[in-house]
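hey team, just a heads up i'm posting the complex here instead of the shared drive bc the drive is being weird again. everything in one block, sequence lines first with there labels, then the predicted structure for the whole assembly after. its two chains so it's a bit long, scroll down
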Amino acid sequence: MKVRISDDALAIACGADAVAKAFTDAGSEVERVSSWGMHWLEPLVEINGIGFGPVTPADVVDILAGGADTLCIGPIAAHPFIARQQRLTFARAGKTRPLDLDDYYATSGWQGLAKAREIGPAATIEALITSGLRGRGGAGFPAGIKWRTVAGAQSPQKYIVCNADEGDSGTFADRMVMEGDPYVLIEGMAIAGHAVGASKGYVYIRSEYPHAIAKMEAAVKACAHLIAPFDVEIRVGAGAYVCGEETSLLNSLEGKRGEVRAKPPLPALEGLFGKPTVVNNVLTLATVPWVMANGAEAYAAYGMGRSRGTMPIQIAGNVKYGGLFETAFGITLGELVNDIGGGSGSGRPVRCVQVGGPLGAYHPPSQFDTPFDYEAFTGVDGLIGHGGLVVFDETVDMASQARFAMEFCAAESCGKCTPCRLGSTRGTETLDRVLAGENVDANLALIEDLCDTMKFGSLCALGGFTPYPVLSAITHFREDFVVRNKA
Amino acid sequence: MSLADILARHKGREGPLLPILHDVQAEFGHVSEDAIRTIASDLNLTRAEVHGVFSFYHDYRSTPEPRPIIKLCRAEACQARGVEALVTAMTPNPAVKVETVYCLGLCSVGPAAMVGTEVYARLDAAKLETLVKSL
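-- predicted structure starts here --
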């Protein structure tokens, strides 16, 4: 009997290795596959398409005997959490062995690269522009336009850099791609290299992701002959959140301090080692093979407004059904949190959701009708960022969360620009006074003024977007601040 | 592996400084002042330049850490799942070094921690206590 269990880091952290060993010891053939992304069910065990989860080694005998009814979720593919999704980037999730090239071929692998080679660089870039695919790292810049800029730059050396420095709390989609479907990312990079005329690619992976690093290293070796003459090298970060910012990442790759560069020049013209460089997020590049293989129009048919295609949304924090939910843009925040996420994990009422990582706004339930779309979130003073949702229940203290946002910015600031370097520290100190109940109204006015300076005066999104969580907490949850007033 | 071997291994590589620092720390447990001077000389950089890079990144340490290190995630998603209460409840254990890390990408099953490359999720006070004792 063949038993399928994920070898994704999250499944392993939940005990998947011990469960796999118990099945092997019981005489079953165990196949380690990627994760379906239903994280509350990990370790999830699949036997003939039927799922059981979360499984412990003690359940193995029962499952093999045809019991364990309370753990059985029926056919996995028909589970509402999966059936409601539109998985394009994550089409293989749960279905293939991550490093198995046969599995990758059998699931339309390398078809996007073949298509790009067949139609040539110019048509490839045109297709990407037509697809409407925007940068999934957070900035939302049209990927095809970036590629066209790099393609048009004259230089004997160009680079493709994959930003895999996924540091936002509440996000794990990049990690899941690298651990679950590494070839799709490499294929996307090879297509980019072909399109813009770059022969070398780097994947910059954060050091907090050792499993992703190992999988990517192995994958790059295994498929080198298939992407040649393009060559991909893995580089590992060193624990600096700011290196997720593209110019900081380029400096880090060059072996420098991860300080942000002023733009212009754009990395597309003067990027890595001063050469024209495509810097794209993991999800952007991992979506390219689907676009090329299935057609730009097919991708653009999904979505709303200027947000075309699908977004792998990550539902996390205090939520009942957390995991990876890929769907077309347009779904509302409330549907994601309540219908799909099932509300809070604690069972208490949901107080707010932080969308887009540590630099994203805290949204109260009154904003739950906001559709998941770049422009709609900008309209409610927020951002979708890298697509992470962190749910909080009613026990959260929003003044503490606002302070944490400033403290985080102070800890991670690269130090290059003053609003971020000094503003974050002064902001933390000022919020400490608010927390202590000192002149709350006056200090909050000072914070709002400081946020204005940080927002418009910072070089990059770290200082520039820290005001989002701070100001949204003050705007929507002012009661958490003023209650401390020692009047 | 000696420092000279590490430097030789990265010869001809583009932007070799971070990979070198990673290897030095993996091999010796820290990056010493002597190592910084040797690396600087080998890469034709100043000592200040290498020190500047070394000190920018949270991962590198200048002195060895003899104790086992547990990296506990205290970012927003783990906060929402109660990590701060775990920190408060932890029995001080001088035999283990507890470090804060911001995000391990296990945000739907936190609180989460990492020891070396081993990852742990769904921690509660008892599980964390057991984990710390096992190190």
